[in-house]
Design brief:
The complex is a heterodimer of chains A (about 100) and B (about 475). Chain A has helices at about 5-15, 20-40, 75-80; strands at about 85, 90. With about 100 residues, chain A is mainly alpha-helical. Chain A has a domain at about 5-45: Orthogonal Bundle (Histone, subunit A), CATH 1.10.20. In chain A, strand 1 and strand 2 (about 90) form a beta hairpin. The radius of gyration of chain A is 23 Å and the shape is flat. Chain B starts with 6 loop residues before the first helix and ends with a helix. The chains are: A mainly alpha (about 100), B alpha/beta (about 475). At the A-B interface, helix 1 and helix 2 of A face helix 9, helix 10, helix 11, helix 12 and helix 13 of B.
């Protein structure tokens, strides 16, 4: 039965790139454990011979012509929500400390 | 509460010049202002709506929806106001383009007047997970309107516009429809393009409407449905209109879902559902009981697959390209973790964390792959059922609108409100919630489910059932 410790929660938060308060870590360790406990009812279901379903449309390999299509958007229009921009490029914080 | 004529009548009058689009827009904006206390609306798109209305009145876009005002759930990218998905992280986001569904509606003359409240990122069953405010149920202000498209449901119930758009990933159109006494439609997966709609769980996300009648629903679907090169999951439609509703319920085989009529159903909901089924029988349908044993597992399957896909889809909110930006960060990693800490509400965080867990190394097979495989079992049970009956029927939810705050302390309890709606999403089939009476003054919803791509048949059956209820 999955019981998430504080360390498990902190590890997940790190994988998901979310910083959590101490209070949230405690809360999530209880809540996530009870949700996982609920979904664990699937472990006893017999699925012998069945394949997983990833999507339900029955479509495969939807392709398009490899040509440039003009939708009429100027690059700066599409970038108008970017917090920091330089020469049509995103400015981000340094990656290596 | 304001009432609107059928959408086809409104459009016909605008086309003939008997009614003006500008007046219809003003009527809608006035109704919105008057109903402010219900908190259904995040923002109005008044300036753009008035401008569009003037265009329609001068002869542009005089299509099937000429001059018809509508309200979009705020997870549809639209011009004229911010698109926030009711989340702090998208506050201030101005869409650079519009959703395909919005473009198609506008091309036929419909006019978006406002953006409706929702549970942030459509995660929830009550609008209580909105990062901004909770919408009140028009039938009882102490209760929720359902969710996540709760603003859309309440808006239509209050007559703020003839129709509203919603999204349904696990029941988010049908549940608010049942709680607000409106008609909520979730089409076959892939029938309506999701391009330009904030993604939640991509393998079950669908787009549909909340309206006051099946005829209005069918017309709106007809305008939105069809392949879109910008959403590669869209399927082809045939050329016939979805709005031509032919056929009657007489002689149709209808299966009452045994698992939905069991324990845990509120007595009033059971009573109204059974009474509706009796009316349908009297109208000549052949009623039988059908069992789909894996339905009891559907919610567990959903609450693995859905958070998994959410954790992946919501990774795009990184505070770099749009949305909330944490400018004091010392490095890139901190700018991610702080933007997401501030920008996401509790439920988004919760679902991202569960999704991250079930997809993580060592757990993937036990949770995610297992859920996808049980999903196959569910799909084959639905296929079997549809060899015996034309439609499946049951309640939309086991309860009527609950009190605000009643389920907020226990996330699992809140998830259980989706217990009768998630199966249609997992299997991709179309489903509708129709109003079927009241219990203790609160609306009850009747759910009708059809085989994949039988949207036209479902809408025809629903229209004829609507006529006898």
């Amino acid at each position: 039965m999955a019981k998430l410790t504080r360390d498990d929660v902190l590890h997940l938060a790190q994988l998901a790139r979310i910083s959590l308060s101490d209070e949230e870590v405690d809360e999530f360790s209880t809540e996530l454990s009870s949700i996982l406990q609920y979904v664990e009812q699937l472990s006893s279901v017999d699925v012998n011979g069945l394949k997983p379903t990833n999507q339900v449309t029955g479509l495969t390999n939807v392709m398009r012509e490899d040509v440039i299509k003009d939708y009429g958007y100027a690059p700066l229009d599409l970038l108008k929500n970017v917090p920091k921009i330089e020469d049509n490029q995103l400015r981000v914080k340094r990656m290596i400390g | 509460m304001v009432t609107w004529e059928p959408i086809t009548d409104i459009a016909a009058k605008v086309q003939k010049g008997e009614r003006k689009a500008v007046d219809l827009v003003e009527q809608s904006l006035a109704a919105i202002a008057e109903a402010e206390e219900y908190k259904t609306i995040i923002a109005v798109t008044a300036d753009r709506a008035r401008e569009r209305a003037r265009l329609v009145d001068t002869g542009d876009h005089q299509g099937k929806l000429a001059g018809v005002p509508f309200i979009a759930k705020d997870n549809f990218l639209t011009f004229g106001a911010e698109t926030t998905a009711a989340s702090n992280i998208l506050k201030g986001f101005n869409a650079p383009y519009q959703a395909t569904a919005i473009e198609r509606l506008e091309a036929e003359g419909a006019i978006c007047v406002a953006k409706a409240n929702l549970d942030a990122f459509a995660h929830g069953s009550s609008t209580e997970n909105s990062d901004f405010f909770t919408t009140l149920n028009p039938y009882d202000k102490t209760r929720v309107p359902g969710g996540s498209s709760g603003g859309s449901g309440a808006a239509v119930a209050l007559g703020l516009a003839p129709f509203a758009l919603g999204t349904d990933t696990g029941g988010s159109i049908r549940l608010p429809a049942s709680f607000t006494g409106t008609v909520g439609y979730k089409p076959t997966y892939g029938l309506v393009s999701r391009n330009g709609v904030v993604a939640m769980a991509s393998s079950t996300d669908t787009i549909g409407s909340l309206t006051s009648s099946v005829r209005d629903t069918a017309l709106v679907l007809d305008v939105m449905a069809g392949k879109d090169e910008l959403d590669s999951t869209t399927v082809d439609r045939d050329s016939a209109s979805y709005a031509d509703l032919h056929g009657e319920i007489k002689g149709k085989r209808i299966g009452v879902i045994k698992e939905y009529m069991g324990e845990g159903l509120q007595p009033g909901v059971r009573e109204q559902t059974e009474a509706a089924i009796e009316e349908i029988r009297r109208a000549g349908a052949i009623i039988q009981e059908v069992s789909l044993p894996s339905l009891s597992l559907a919610l567990a399957v959903y609450y693995i697959i859905c958070p998994a896909e959410i954790s992946s889809n919501l990774s795009r909110y990184d505070g770099q390209r749009y949305g909330y930006h944490y400018s004091e960060a010392v490095d890139l990693d901190e700018s991610y973790t702080k933007a997401r800490a501030f920008g996401f509400g509790k439920e988004a965080k919760r679902r991202i964390m569960i999704g991250t867990y079930v997809l993580s190394s060592g757990y993937y097979d036990a949770y995610y792959k297992k859920a996808q495989t049980v999903r196959t079992k569910l799909i084959s049970e639905f296929a079997d059922a549809f060899t015996q009956v034309d439609f499946l029927i049951g309640p939309t939810a086991p309860m009527t609108a609950f009190k605000a705050g009643e389920n907020t302390d226990d996330p699992l309890q809140m998830y259980l409100t989706d217990i009768m709606t998630v199966a249609a999403n997992l299997t991709g089939v179309p489903a509708i919630s129709l109003p079927c009476g009241f219990t203790d003054g609160l609306p009850v919803g009747l759910q009708i489910i059809a085989p994949q791509c039988a949207d036209r048949e479902l809408l025809a059956a629903a229209a004829s059932i609507e006529g006898v209820l």
